[in-house]
Design brief:
The chain has one domain (2-287). It has 12 helices and no strands. The protein has helices at 2-27, 33-55, 67-89, 92-99, 102-113, 120-137, 149-166, 174-192, 204-230, 233-236, 242-253, 261-287. The relative contact order is 0.23.
Length: 288
């Protein structure tokens, strides 16, 4: 029963993140990426600070000066900067597909930097997953969009973020870490300002999009935490890929995108490779 609850929370979280990406895409048609990052980052942080005050979660901790937390926060900053730019400049379906390689990059990073043992089966899955990315990017072809590389760069930062999270002290509150993640997102908007147009006053519809994006984004963050605390992570984690299903549906139904066969094939390859990696890791943990 705990695993079922965890799976439902994970699916809820992924639906929330997919909706957040949709609202960002809709906002980017009229507002600069820098403004979107600033508003979403600081509004999300404000909601979490209020939550921390109500739940007596610490906003400032000495452990936050730990190198793992600092690296994680910096990675959140650059991941937000590059991924939101990718959403704005490329089809949502392709950006969401590339994002799904993050677990594969984490596996590779764990082997290279944390000295975790990764066998040939998981290395093969990682390589196959990256082949899926090539199917989506198609470098050297007329359909290649250089802007899609922004999503690739974002996944690298997200992978480093996840690796640094593994080395963080357990005493650090999830709410506290999330506050600084959203603050980093807001700060990334100021870094992006020289590369985008001047800020504009949002319309009433765009204000609604901002409120909705903040709401579903915060729900997504908390649902992920509840999911991983409610059951077996090895069972629940593969359901992270439901985010791609939601993203594809929203991009087709709301944005009228039509992902081609290469994009769909690449997405499928990435998902299968990632799920295989999760299953393989869970088997290895059980055998030990």
């Amino acid at each position: 029963m705990q695993n079922l609850r965890g799976i439902l929370f994970m699916i809820l979280a992924m639906a929330g993140f997919a909706l957040e990406d949709l609202f960002i895409k809709l906002l980017s048609s009229h507002l600069p990426v820098s403004q979107i990052l600033i508003i979403l980052g600081f509004s999300g942080a404000s909601v979490l600070i209020i939550t921390a005050l109500l739940t007596h979660a610490p906003i400032l901790q000495r452990d936050l000066l730990n190198s793992s937390v600092i690296i994680r926060t910096l990675c959140e900053l650059f991941a937000a900067l590059f991924f939101v730019s990718a959403i704005a400049l490329t089809p949502l379906s392709s950006a969401a597909s590339i994002l799904m390689t993050t677990p594969l990059m984490v596996t590779m990073g764990a082997a290279l930097f944390l000295k975790e043992k990764v066998g040939w089966r998981r290395w093969t899955a990682v390589m196959v997953g990256f082949f899926g990315v090539l199917l989506i990017l198609r470098p050297g072809f007329d359909s290649f969009m250089p802007e899609s590389l922004l999503a690739v760069i974002a996944t690298i930062f997200l992978a480093v973020r996840d690796l640094s999270t593994r080395t963080m002290k357990a005493s650090i509150s999830t709410t506290t870490v999330s506050i600084y993640a959203f603050l980093a997102c807001g700060i990334s908007g100021f870094i992006a300002m020289p590369f985008y147009s001047a800020m504009v006053i949002p319309s009433s519809v765009e204000v609604t999009y901002f409120i909705s994006a903040t709401f579903v984004g915060v729900i997504g963050y908390y649902a992920v935490v509840l999911a991983t605390r409610d059951g077996d992570v090895s069972v629940i984690s593969p359901f992270r890929y439901s985010r791609l299903v939601f993203a594809m549906l929203l991009s087709v139904i709301i944005l009228s995108e039509r992902p081609d066969l290469f994009t769909l094939s690449g997405a499928l390859v990435i998902v299968v490779s990632g799920i295989y990696t999760y299953i393989r890791e869970s088997h290895l943990k059980q055998s030990h």
